[in-house]
Amino acid sequence: MTLTATDPTDLTALADLTDPQTFLRPKEELRAMWQRFRAERPVHWHPVEGRQVPGFWVLSRYHDVMAVYRDNKNFTSERGNVLATLLEGGDSAAGQMLAVTDGRRHRELRNLLLKAFAPRVLQPVVDGVRARADRLVRQAVARGECDFARDVAEHIPMATIADLLGVPAADRSYLLSLTKQALSSEEAGQSAEEAVVARNELLLYFSELADERREDPREDVVSVLATAQIDGEPLTEQEIVFNCYSVIIGGDETSRLSMICALHELMQHPEQWRRLRSGEVEVDTAVEEVLRWVTPAMHFGRRAVADVEIGGRTIRAGDVVTLWNSSANYDEEVFADPGVFDLGRTPNKHVSFGYGPHFCLGAYLGRAEIHALLTALRTHVAHAEPGGAARPIHSNFLHGYSALPVRLHPAG
Ligand code: HEM
After folding, report:
1. Which of 324, 376, 396, 407 is nearest to 62 (CA)?
2. Sorting pLDDT into bands at 50, 70 and 90, what band is 2?
3. From the CB of 85, is ligand 1 less than 6 Å away?
4. Is Oxidoreductase given among the entry's keywords (predicted)?
5. 28, 106, 300, 398: least surrounded by Cβ within 10 Å?
């Protein structure tokens, strides 16, 4: 069924936001859908059946989304922060893993982790990102044809995260294979049990690495967590391993999909590709527009802990509230011509990294990865064209492609 901006049909019947299929619709159609949500039902109750909760709220306007991100008094992440876990009733790492912890413990854990994310500490990691992106793009250009997802984008985020965590070179391929099995929903022929086994092996691996770093600390995330004390107490084993894991969950797929979408969108918009190549737009500015336009994490969510009024409707304590970044980033009240991909757009206060107390810890690194990719593309590629059909991922949370066949023509 096709949805247009003027379709008289009820929105609820047309947009099941729990169903990944909904997000496989053409981008223009999804944009029209969100436009109608913002105009007609900016605070919308979305019913669900057969779950632990009767439904959830859908916030689509920029200012409403920002207000809930900011408000960790009336809204909590401890009962889950994405629709899937919120509908299941909670997250098993709540109160221990940064993204699903609130209040004082969240502040303490976040302050600790910020040490490992300080620009001075990150500099060598960012240098690694640049070198890696440059080498991978050069190699892809030399081959002429490639699957940009598999041959380029896949190799940047996990290697970066391994640098950040301080994983020794010898363990990297083991870590990569475990994260693929633990997290990828697309591994062919993989059972749910195998994913659980891989997840447990990952946690065990970080537990052992933390023991080593306690004896011989460096400046990496594992060392910071392993040696930290809060009020004279070390972190629990669970807190250490869950937060190592959270850096992988937070930083791998999001960055990978952003890079894949960056090239996809540049191929769809030759004029913007030309502006990037000619230097007419700054790479920094282009990075922000890629983030807005792509919106790799389409939503996050919270549970209300008190009754709150938003847009004239009452959200009750206990209700699930979802915040649609993919709509907020196109809100015509905030962005001029939001439906235009403009690499020179300023200002560009998108919500792709969230906002407020849970603002993405890896934003600097995520930006550096996209920056490195755009720089490598504009340096080494004169022209890029599709080499086959892109394969979209099936998700109501992340947006992007798992395969992007391309032909890359070298810059003269
Ligand atoms: C949090 C998006 C890259 C680690 C978040 C949030 C968003 C986000 C929207 C807020 C979640 C919430 O409010 O519940 C993205 C996007 C990325 C990216 C779009 C890439 C383009 C990264 C990277 C890392 C990372 C590279 C680490 C290396 C985290 C962590 C949190 C987080 C640990 C939780 C922060 C907290 O709860 O205090 N991310 N992220 N992210 N992100 Fe990212």
Report:
1. 324
2. very low
3. no
4. yes
5. 28
Beta strands in 49-151 (DSSP E): 55-59, 75-76, 145-147
Relative orientation angle of helices 157-165 and 172-183, to the nearest 10 degrees: 120
Question: CATH number of the domain that 326 lies in?
Answer: 1.10.630.10
Does the beta carbon of 94 sit less than 6 angstroms from any atom of ligand 1?
A: no
pLDDT 10s digits, 367-406: 999 999 999 999 999 999 999 999 999 999 999 999 999 9
Q: What is the 3-state secondary structure (H, E, C) of 208-222?
A: HHHHHHHHCCCCCHH
CB 66, CB 349: distance < 8 Å: no
Structural domain including 310 reads 20-88+97-407
Nearest CA to ligand 1 atom 17: 254
Q: Is residue 203 part of a domain?
A: yes
Q: Taking phi first (over 0 means left), then psi (-120 to 50 degrees means alpha), and beta for anything else, what does residue 88 get?
A: alpha
Tell me which residue has tokens 């976040």: 110
In the chain, the number of structural domains is: 1
pLDDT digits (tens, 9 = 90+) for 131-146: 999 999 999 999 999 9
Among 249, 260, 360, 367, say which to mutate for ligand 1: greatest number of ligand atoms within 8 Å of CB: 360
Q: How far is the CA of 360 from the centre of ligand 1 (A)?
A: 4
C-alpha closest to that of 183 among 354, 403, 360, 402? 402
Q: Is the pLDDT of residue 184 over 80?
A: no
